[in-house]
Structures are given as structure tokens and as C-alpha cells.
């Protein structure tokens, strides 16, 4: 059942800084100081880095979704996993009760990634850690009249993406040729956001909001809508530019959230416990 439109309720251009070698450049797509607005998402970072930036480190209480924009990303983890991801590939990680992993550039590459943190409800924060690689060629690509739709997670246009996140989400990449239009059906009760990778697009139909490369926008949602209700996100590419956007949506969890460093829990006491467990070697095993 269609109930209305998805609109852009807030938007901004990502601001970048240079943290210092080997972390070449970093910007917040979803700044962490506003995390309560993004539920079920927590933050999203845009990073350029060389080897040694994100070596062996722990996590607990949430999930990560890492999209490789460019370069080669080498992953090792506490379960003995090892993989190399390339442009367009995505890695999903459930940190659960405790994960240790490393995310490194290969050789002398400068790797460019987008990493989204996805919360876990209290009932799933002590689950076993797990990892899943979603390679570009395994994410279904739907041809549109004016471009294409790639489905990494969730369903659209009759196809379902391969990502198996504990908290179900939609993750789509849409490419439109200059001046083309497309309307994407999204759950009405899903919170979500978009991030422009290329060109310029207008969202929300006539009188909508135009966003260009490295701009982010929060989507409107109806928290009281039934699970089966959908809304349309109307998208129009600029007349002179081929354009590409990432779209993420998920149903809010609606629980208290406390985030500190690499841990995301429900209370301060649980954060203290997470740090104590890490110091005692109880958060994952060494990579």
C-alpha cells in the first residue's frame, strides 16, 4: 500500500579533515553527535587511508557495512577470515558480543571506503560475531529505463540482495543518466539516508531537494505506518550529469544507545563492562 512520498528532511555537504598519515582523509557522512536521529544507524564515515590506519581493533554491540569506493581492502578477523575486496564490494560484520579485526590497504594502495555502523537491539548484542563479503558481481543489477539499480541488501524491483544482516536493512545503489527519472519504493516506517557518489540528483519530485557529490540527506519516515506500507522516493538526475547515489533504510529499534570508542551498548554500565572485558582479553581473539 502506497501512503505518500519520501522527502529529504535534512541535508549537508560532508566536511573533510586530514587526521595525519597513514589516515589520509576522513569525513563524517553521518556525524556521530547526531546518532539518535539515524536509528537504527549510528554513524557513517568516508575514509581514505594507507596500511596501518585500521589495524587490529575490537568492536561490540553493533554491525558494520563497509563499501569499497576505490582501491583494495584487505580484511583479517578473529575467526581466521581473510579476504581482499575491490571497488563496489561490500563487507558486512556483526560484532555481536565481541569481534577483533583489521581493515588494511593492500601494499601501497590508498584505499577509499564508506563505513556505516548499524545498531543491534539489546536482544542481539551478545550474539556471536560473523562476517559476510558481498562482491559486486553477486549483488543483483536491475536495468532501469534511465539507468540501473544495484541491490546489496533488502528487496526492490522483484530482486533481493545477498546481504544477511541481523537487523534487516535496504542498501541500494542507483545510477541514472543525465536528465533521467526513477521512483524507488521504500518502507514508510523506515528511517534512512542517502549519500551522493557522483553528479547531482533531485529528491522528492517537483520542488524537491537537489544534492551533489559528497552531500548527504536524511529521509522522512512515518514511525506509525504499518510494516507493509510503502512510500515513493522520486529521483531525478541533473540535466547535464550522469549521477549515482547510495540509499540506506532500516526500521528504527527505539532503544537507549550509549556509544564509546569501538563499543555501542544500551547503558553506561555495559560500556564500562565492554572496556573491562577488552582489557581482560574477553572481546574476540587476536587477529
Describe this entry's structure for a reader:
The protein has one helix spanning 268-279, and strands at residues 2-5, 8-13, 16-17, 23-30, 41-49, 54-59, 62-70, 73-77, 82-85, 90-94, 99-105, 111-119, 130-134, 141-144, 147-153, 155-156, 159-160, 169-176, 181-187, 191-198, 200-203, 209-212, 215-219, 230-237, 243-250, 258-260, 263-265. It is mainly β. It has one domain (2-250): Jelly Rolls (Sandwich). The strands form six sheets. The chain has a seven-stranded antiparallel beta sheet, with no helix packed on it. A seven-stranded antiparallel beta sheet has the order 3-4-5-12-7-10-13, with no helix packed on it. A hairpin with a 2-residue loop joins strand 14 (141-144) and strand 15 (147-153). The model has no long low-confidence stretch (mean pLDDT 95).
Topology diagram in text:
Elements: E1 2-5, E2 8-13, E3 16-17, E4 23-30, E5 41-49, E6 54-59, E7 62-70, E8 73-77, E9 82-85, E10 90-94, E11 99-105, E12 111-119, E13 130-134, E14 141-144, E15 147-153, E16 155-156, E17 159-160, E18 169-176, E19 181-187, E20 191-198, E21 200-203, E22 209-212, E23 215-219, E24 230-237, E25 243-250, E26 258-260, E27 263-265, H1 268-279
Parallel strand pairs: 1-24
Antiparallel strand pairs: 2-23, 3-4, 4-5, 5-12, 6-11, 7-10, 7-12, 8-9, 8-11, 10-13, 14-15, 15-18, 16-17, 18-25, 19-24, 20-23, 20-25, 21-22, 21-24, 26-27
What class do helices, strands and sheet pairing give?
mainly beta
CATH architecture: Sandwich
The mean pLDDT is 95
**Name given to the CATH homologous superfamily:** Jelly Rolls
Low-confidence stretches: none
Distance between the termini: 47 Å
- What is the H/E string? EEEEEEEEEEEEEEEEEEEEEEEEEEEH
| Percent in strands | over 45%
- Physical arrangement of strands within the biggest beta sheet: 2-23-20-25-18-15-14
Helix content: under 10%
What oligomeric state best describes the polypeptide chains here?
A: single chain
User: How many strands, what sense, and barrel or not for the largest sheet?
Assistant: 7 strands, antiparallel
Instruction: Give the number of domains.
Output: 1
Rg on CA atoms, Å: 19 Å
Question: Shape, please?
Answer: globular
How many helices? The count is 1
Which fold name is given in CATH as the topology?
Jelly Rolls
Amino acid at each position: 500500500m502506497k501512503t505518500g512520498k519520501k522527502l529529504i528532511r535534512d541535508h549537508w555537504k560532508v566536511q573533510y579533515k586530514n587526521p595525519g598519515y597513514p589516515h589520509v582523509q576522513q569525513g563524517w557522512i553521518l556525524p556521530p553527535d547526531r546518532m539518535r536521529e539515524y536509528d537504527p544507524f549510528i554513524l557513517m564515515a568516508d575514509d581514505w587511508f594507507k596500511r596501518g590506519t585500521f589495524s587490529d581493533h575490537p568492536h561490540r554491540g553493533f554491525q558494520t557495512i563497509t563499501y569499497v569506493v576505490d582501491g583494495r581492502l584487505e580484511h583479517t578477523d578473529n575467526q581466521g577470515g581473510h579476504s581482499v575486496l575491490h571497488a563496489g564490494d561490500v563487507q558486512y560484520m556483526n560484532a555481536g558480543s565481541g569481534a577483533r579485526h583489521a581493515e588494511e590497504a593492500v601494499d601501497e594502495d590508498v584505499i577509499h571506503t564508506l563505513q556505516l555502523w548499524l545498531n543491534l537491539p539489546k536482544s542481539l548484542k551478545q550474539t556471536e560475531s560473523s562476517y559476510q563479503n558481498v562482491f559486486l558481481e553477486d549483488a543483483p543489477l536491475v536495468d532501469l529505463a534511465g539507468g540501473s539499480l544495484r541491490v546489496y541488501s533488502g528487496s526492490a524491483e522483484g530482486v533481493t540482495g545477498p546481504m544477511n544482516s541481523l537487523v534487516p536493512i535496504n542498501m541500494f545503489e542507483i545510477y541514472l543518466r543525465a536528465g533521467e527519472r526513477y521512483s524507488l519504493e521504500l518502507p514508510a516506517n523506515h528511517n534512512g539516508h542517502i549519500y551522493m557518489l557522483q553528479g547531482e540528483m533531485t529528491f522528492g519530485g517537483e520542488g524537491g531537494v537537489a544534492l551533489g557529490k559528497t552531500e548527504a540527506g536524511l529521509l522522512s519516515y512515518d514511525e506509525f505506518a504499518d510494516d507493509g506500507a510503502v512510500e515513493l522516493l522520486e529521483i531525478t538526475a541533473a540535466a547535464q550529469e550522469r549521477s549515482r547515489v547510495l540509499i540506506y533504510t532500516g526500521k528504527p529499534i527505539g532503544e537507549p544507545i550509549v556509544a564509546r570508542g569501538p563499543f555501542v551498548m544500551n547503558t553506561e554500565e555495559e560500556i564500562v563492562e565492554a572496556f573491562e572485558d577488552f582489557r581482560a582479553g574477553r572481546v574476540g581473539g587476536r587477529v
